[in-house]
Every structure is written in structure tokens, then in C-alpha cells.
Write a structure and sequence with these properties.
By secondary structure, the chain is an alpha/beta fold. It has a single domain (9-203), classed as Pyruvate-ferredoxin Oxidoreductase, domain 3, CATH 3.40.920.10. The chain is 42% helix and 21% strand. The chain is built from 8 helices and 6 strands, in the order βαβββαβααβαααα. It has helices spanning 21-34, 83-93, 110-113, 122-132, 141-148, 154-162, 172-182, 185-203, and strands at 9-16, 38-45, 53-61, 75-80, 94-102, 135-138. It has a 6-stranded mixed β-sheet, sandwiched between helices. Strand 4, helix 2 (83-93) and strand 5 (94-102) form a beta-alpha-beta unit. Helix 2 (83-93) runs parallel beside helix 4 and helix 5 (141-148) packs across helix 8 (185-203). The longest helix is centred in the C-terminal third of the chain and has 19 residues, at 185-203. The relative contact order is 0.16. The mean pLDDT is 92.
Length: 208
Amino acid sequence: MIQLKYDPLNIVVCGIGGQGNVLAAEVVGSAMIDRGCRVAVGETYGASQRGGSVMSHVRVSLQDDPSVLIPSGEAHIIIGFEPLETLRIARKYAGADTVAVYDPRPVYPLGVLQGVQTYPDLDALQEEIRSLTTLALAVPAADIAMEAGDSRAANIALLGAFSQVPGAPLSREDLEKILARRFKGAVLELNQKAFAMGCGAAGKGGAQ
């Protein structure tokens, strides 16, 4: 039986529409169920179209059926696919012992691309993420996915990094089993490569 540092264990997966964070949350939830846990997964959307904020709550317990939404200040792990979205979640949900693993590569909103809005200074943004968490692991998941062969595998690369976080509730093998069930053929091979590269990137000391 899996051991949970917290019960319920609260994981937030966040990013923008189209980055695959809903799939990532489903993979984490499925792996937790395989390990004998009770899991609740729920999503909230800042905008329905591609490019809007998306956040998934994954709550895990060995004792009870957890409610879907994580209370403010009670996230134990944040998996972020975009740095500004990671900071937004950390500001609301980070607590005394929160770990964040995130991609530091910005995805600029349309207003920034049009020159009518300004994206926050990236160094200051990452410094605030570090200040709000006990560990912030910055992993270039989008770059890893491109190197693996498909930018859409960034979510899987970040899950690989997540499995290497100190005290992670799931091992590399736990998540690899779910990938093997969910994907087949060339898509599985691509995701396995991205996942392995994400594991390696975390092991190289991406802590910020």
C-alpha cells in the first residue's frame, strides 16, 4: 500500500488550454487508484477556448472519499505547465510545505503579443514562486518535448520530472504503467521518450 505524507494529499495541475494538463491530471489520478487510493479529480476553466486558464484538482486519500476542490492554502504539490499560471496557483493554494514542479517557458497571451499588455518579469516571477514554496523545480518540459519529437508531449515530460521530486507520491514505474495502458505504438514510444527525458532533467538539479 502506498504511503501518503498527507491525507488527503492535494495536487494542483495548472496551465492554459491546449497544454494537456487535464490528461496529466487523469494520468496521476489513475496511477493513484492503481496504488489503492481513493481519488477525486475536478477541473476549473478560466476560459472555455484554447488559451484560457485551466486548473485540475487531484485529491487523494487512503481513508475517505475526498471532496473535489482543494481549499485555499492546502496544495501539497503544484504541477505547472506555464510560469505565470504556476504563480497564480501558488499565490492562492500554496501552503507551509508546498512543492512546485513547473515549466519556466512563458506562453504569452494574445494581449501581450499585440503589445497592449505586459508579461511580468520572468526572473521576478520565478523568485516569487520560490518564495511561496519549499521547493520549486523548473524543468523545460516544452523544450524537452520538442527534442523528443512532438511539442504536445510537454505534459508527459513534466510528469516524468514530477516523479523525481523528493517525496513524490508516485514512482517513475507507477506512471509508466499508466502511459503503457493509455497509449500504443509510435505515440507510446514518443511519450516514453519524453517521460524519460523529464525524469533525467529533474535529476540534473533543476531546483530553483
